[in-house]
Amino acid sequence: MRSRFQTVVACGLFALASACAQASGNTATTERPDRSLITQEQLVAAKYLTAYDAVAALRSNWLSTRGPDSFQNQSQVRVYLDSNLLGGVDALRTVAVTTISFIRHFDGIAATARWGLDHGAGVIYLSTRPASVTDPD
C-alpha cells in the first residue's frame, strides 16, 4: 500500500513538473510588443494623416504630462524629428505619417538622461530613417 502511494505521488509530481516546463516554454516564444515604439507598419495599416493622429490613436498617454514638476514652469512633452527639436506636442500635427519610419517614446527619466533637465515630461522621437540606422537606444 505504501509503494502504491509513493507511485501516485511520483506520477503527480512528474505531471506537475512537465506542465510547468511546458508553460515556461510557451512564454519564452511569446514576444511582448514594445509599448514605447510605433512602427511604420502600424502607421501604414491604419492610414493616419499626421503623427499626432497616430500617437493620439495608438498611444494617447504619450501626449500628456504625468503631473506638475515645478510651480513656476510646467514641463511639456518635447518632440524631436531625427535629433532636431521641433517643439511641443502640437508639432506632431505638422509631420506627415508617410515620412516617418518609427516613433519612439522616452519617459521623463530616459529623456532627461539623454537630452537634459528640461525634458522631465518625456520625449516623442520621430525618425525618417530605419530603426537600425538611427534608433537612439
Distance between the termini: 63 Å
Instruction: Assign a percent range to the helix content.
Output: 40-55%
Query: Which structural category fits the helices and strands?
Result: alpha+beta
Tally the helices: what do you get?
5
Apparent shape:
elongated
Mean pLDDT: 82
Low-confidence stretches: none
Overall radius of gyration: 23 Å
List the strand order in the largest sheet. 1-4-5-2-3
What's the total number of strands? 5
CATH architecture of the largest domain: Beta Complex
Tell me the β content.
15-25%
CATH class of the largest domain: Mainly Beta
Note the main attributes of this structure.
five-stranded mixed sheet, 5 strands, 137 residues, alpha+beta, Ferric Hydroxamate Uptake Protein, Chain A, domain 1
Question: Can you give a write-up of this model?
Answer:
The protein is α+β, with helices and mostly antiparallel strands and 137 residues long. The chain folds into two domains: 1-30; 37-131, Ferric Hydroxamate Uptake Protein, Chain A, domain 1 (Beta Complex). Helix content is 40%, strand content 15%. The protein has five helices and five strands. It has helices at residues 2-29, 40-46, 51-58, 108-115, 131-134, and strands spanning 37-39, 78-81, 84-87, 102-106, 123-127. A five-stranded mixed beta sheet has the order 1-4-5-2-3.
